[in-house]
Amino acid sequence: AINIQGTDHHGTIARVRAGLQAANVGIPEGYPDYLLHTMIRVMRGGEEVKISKRAGSYVTLRDLIDWTSKDAVRFFLLSRKPDTEYIFDVDLALAKNNDNPVFYVQYAHARICRVFEEWGGDAAQLAGASLAPLTSNHELALMQRLAEYPDTVAGAARELAPHLMVHYLHALAGDFHAWYNADKFLVDDEATRLARLALADATRITIVNGLALLGVSAPETM
């Protein structure tokens, strides 16, 4: 169990744990785990949305979802450590450009899907493709990033730090976009074409899996 509360409730940690120990029913010491979140500021239309509990003025999670999207809310709120200051920029979450981090990652997936649509082949035939033709700096950087995925997932789980996954996916998308802008995938040479498609497909699968862990969709068209 992980108890998620605001930082102003830090005093409850010791009391709850002590109460559980006092029950003397075999609950481990230090249970439950805690994550304490700082308050989140919201910007909309270039101005801060004023929040006052005393005045009954506040922004709910439903408000953020209605103003933007479920994907944007999940991705944005998971992008920072819980104990750091964060400003949720509604206008940025709605932007359809590379400044919007969730758009940037999802667009990488959509680009790969478009490449495969243009190719028209069966991804299953890429399983035995040789990766020997992949020698450019962009290709090597992307393969290195893909190799880091298992350790990133393990570290995020171990440290209760989903922001590590967000940062990884953003970096992975950046590596892919750089490669996409530098090289053609559907070249005449079959060995090179299949190798590049295999690397693109591995990137697609990793993006899908990473976003799924965060509860964010991977649209095929954007």
Please give the order of strands in the largest beta sheet: 4-3-5
* Rg (CA only): 22 Å
What gap, in angstroms, lies between the N and C termini? 37 Å
Largest sheet: 3 strands, mixed
DSSP helix fraction:
40-55%
- Chain-averaged pLDDT: 94
Low-confidence regions:
none
Helix-strand pattern:
EHEEEHHEHHHHHH
By DSSP (H or I, 4+ residues per run), the number of helices equals 9
The counted number of beta strands is: 5
- Broad shape: globular
Overview of this structure, please?
- This protein starts with a strand and ends in an 8-residue tail after the last helix.
- It has helices at residues 12-22, 61-67, 70-77, 90-94, 101-119, 137-147, 149-158, 163-182, 190-214; strands at 2-6, 33-37, 40-44, 47-48, 86-89.
- A three-stranded mixed beta sheet has the order 4-3-5. A two-stranded parallel sheet has the order 1-2.
- It is globular, with a radius of gyration of 22 Å.
- It has 222 residues and is mostly helical.
- A hairpin with a 2-residue loop joins strand 3 (40-44) and strand 4 (47-48).
- The longest helix has 25 residues, at 190-214.
